[in-house]
Automatic annotation (TrEMBL):
SMART domains: AAA. Keywords: ATP-binding, Cell membrane, Membrane, Nucleotide-binding, Translocase, Transport. This is Phosphonate ABC transporter ATP-binding protein. GO terms for molecular function: ABC-type phosphonate transporter activity; ATP binding; ATP hydrolysis activity. Belongs to the ABC transporter superfamily. It comes from the Bacteria. Gene3D superfamilies: P-loop containing nucleotide triphosphate hydrolases. The keyword ATP-binding applies. SUPFAM superfamilies: P-loop containing nucleoside triphosphate hydrolases. The lineage of its organism: Bacteria, Pseudomonadati, Pseudomonadota, Gammaproteobacteria, Vibrionales. It is a peripheral membrane protein.
Amino acid sequence: MSTLTLKGLTKHYSNSDKALTDVNLSIQAGEVVGLIGPSGAGKSTLIRCINRLTEPTSGEVLFQGNDLTQLSKGQLKQARRQIGMIFQEYALIERLTVMENVLSGRLGYVPFWRSFLRKYPSHDIQNAFALLERVDLYKHANKRADALSGGQRQRVGIARALAQQPSLLLIDEPTAALDPKTARQIMRLITEICREHQLPAIINIHDVNLATQFVDRIVGLNSGEVVFDGTPEELDETALTTIYGEEDWNATSHEDTQDVELEPEFA
């Protein structure tokens, strides 16, 4: 049984631009899906339509027995507790500590007075420490978020999303602002955690080589339509041309491979 199913998901803007057209996908438990495509293909829009940060024009988003597109604001708020979101720009509260940012993942579960006074239940605090241990930030628990590196901030974002105890992760460009070594570490961390918890994830990612190294399945978008859906091994020159257009993909792959081989020397 799929965890998430999209049926005919469509998003058209008022100026007639078609961001998404008739997207149909099913994501299974524990499956990590890489969403690739050129800029403007609709990758971020697709992720944001799933949890209705962007309202779809039509279609269904079936998650845990509910069509999210039909939920009221109150019902949607409840459903979003089960959907962890990890952002490209981290979306941390800079003046708060690492621990406080992780605990903010529990805001949908605790009374307002607890969050306002930062008096979270002990089991939430214990879980937050365990998550910080898992993402290798335990020693930085009391450090302000604005004192962290980009990779560390992304790890805080991962821990915060996991603090929700979600049933689905939506991840928007988690490696875009990171150097190649840190980017691989973040992708490895995300995919390991997903497999440990059988947690499905959709990752919007520009780096095709990075995606093929870590994800289980790749979905390619072009002009808001799914033009490829298969395993990393099936992402050949023909598929890449369908997604991105004409390019000398063999030459590109060779250059990228050289970069990967040289990187440890300069890490």
